[in-house]
Amino acid sequence: MNRVSAKARPDSPAPLKLARAALARGGSMGADLEIYVQYGRTVNIKVFRRGVESVTVAEPRGLGIRAIRDGRMGYSFTADLSNAGIDLALAAATDNLRAADVDPFVRLPEPASHGYPELPGLWLPGIAGTDLAAKTRIALEAEAAAFANPAVELVEESVYADEEARVGIASSTGIEAEAEQSFCFTYVLALAGGNGERQSGLGFSTGREPGALDPEQTGREAADKARALLGARPCATGAYTVVFDREVAAALIASIAQALSADAVQKGRSVFAGKVGQAVASRVLTVLDDGLAAEGMGTNPFDGEGVPQQATPLFEAGVLRSFLHSSYTARKEGEGVGSTGNAARGSYRSVPGVGATNLVVVPGEGDLADVTARVGEGLYVDSVAGLHSGVNPISGEISVGATGRLIAGGALGAPVREVTIATDFAGFLGSVSDLGGDARWIPLHGSVCAPSLVVDGIAVSGV
Asked: How many folded domains does the chain comprise?
């Protein structure tokens, strides 16, 4: 059992204590039960034109119940954590068994023999100890830093956001787990203008408590990116060696990881089906799903059903090593396959699915200047548009709009916009030729730690 030191609200028992109590109340239901308890507190502050635009504070709290009997699963959830509310949810979960289809792979996982990893520092007191006025100042300072750049005409968004989450799980099979984590970030979207045009740039900073954030650097980063794109024009159509900025690399890796879900594979929705053990990427590329990474947003001792999280190699020197499994997909896969600790839950309102924790691209060497020097001639892409519609994890096709800068003589040159880059998962992964040593945690597409990424032979449609 994983214990944490943070205190519960005065009117709330600790999550695991409540999960145990609910499990005991359902002992006569005649089904295996899993109780998932979630407490949370989120803050989101937006500022605009040096004033507060909105402040949103929410405290989601509730529990979800999985009831399993004879290969059938019933589910219910409630935000009423009184005994009466829990009893109603227990009754609903068991009543729902009658409407469920039989599935021979539906069972609750057993407790891990080795227990849960110790992961100190996932929760820090700074978020709870910082008032709304101080959090607002972070967003205002980030906005002011962007406006300090004379090219910036408008800061479209400057946001501070944080979350504290506490989870407890207890099940009939003996799982007992409890953990807590905190995370916060600030981001700025700045617009630089000149000669009738505007270009945008994004900056951000992350940490487990507000003191770890750097609002001045966040604003400067957004402003510098926007200013660098002023005067951008389409480049010539052709095949380019493309240096993908860390944020874009993170977005593409996160999209590819959707096709590495065992659930997607088993449903025939992945281009990687049947390819474990095969070389599907360049030898220079190694990617992990690391649920234990100290700085990751997805780090936790256990997953959404109480199975210990772990570090799972996905691509290892280009070879596909594993898919991401929950206990359900592992049983469905067959003998010798176990959960990789990737049962994911959006909240207490949903049953576990399969999802990545922290995606980590093993970096190479050097910063962006070193990478562009090694490339010599090509295209640097610092943002893409149309990810949701332009990246298909089922077919593996990639077609997105891009902005960035040409690479000439080993350095960043003329700004570029209104071009389209087209490839597919096989072409992208197989053509990675270099990686920077500038890996950074990106919170914009899940939780991804990615460096600058060089891919050869990318088709670019411009003029």
From this structure: 2
Please state, in angstroms and as integers, the Cα–Cα distance from residue 378 to each residue in 364, 398, 411, 415, following that order. 19, 19, 10, 12
Classify each residue of 149-172 as buried b or exposed e, where b means 16 or more C-beta atoms within 10 Å of its C-beta: bebbebbebbbbbbbbbbbbbbbb
Contacts of 342 (CB under 8 A, 6+ apart): 261, 289, 291, 303, 309, 312, 324, 325, 326, 354, 355, 356, 357
- Residue-level pLDDT at 194: 81
- Is residue 388 very low, low, confident or very high in pLDDT (cuts 50, 70, 90)? confident
Answer whether residue 71 is part of any domain: yes
The verdict on 370 and 455 lying in the same domain is yes
Name the pTM for this structure. Answer: 0.95
Q: What is the CATH number of the domain that holds 45?
A: 3.30.2290.10
Hunting for tokens 């990318």 — which residue is that?
Answer: 458
Phi, psi of 271 (to 5 degrees): -75, -10
Query: Going by C-beta distance under 8 Å and a sequence separation of 6 or more, which residues neighbour residue 448?
Result: 250, 251, 253, 254, 358, 359, 360, 361, 441, 442
What's the chain's length in residues?
463
pLDDT of residue 11: 57
User: Does residue 233 share a domain with residue 118?
Assistant: no
- Which range of residues forms the domain containing residue 173? 15-131+142-151+162-183
* Structural domain includes residue 286: no
* Model pLDDT for residues 135-144, shown as the tens digit of each residue: 999 999 999 9
Q: How many Cα atoms within 13 Å fall on the side-chain side of residue 232?
A: 29
The rounded percent of the chain whose pLDDT value lies above 70 is: 98
- Going by C-alpha positions, the residue among 404, 398, 399 that lies closest to residue 244 is 404
pLDDT tens per residue, range 303-338: 999 999 999 999 999 999 999 999 999 999 999 999
Average pLDDT of the chain is 95
What average pLDDT does range 105-125 have in this prediction? 95
Intra-chain end-to-end CA distance of the chain, in Å: 60
What is the arithmetic mean of pLDDT over 94-111? 96
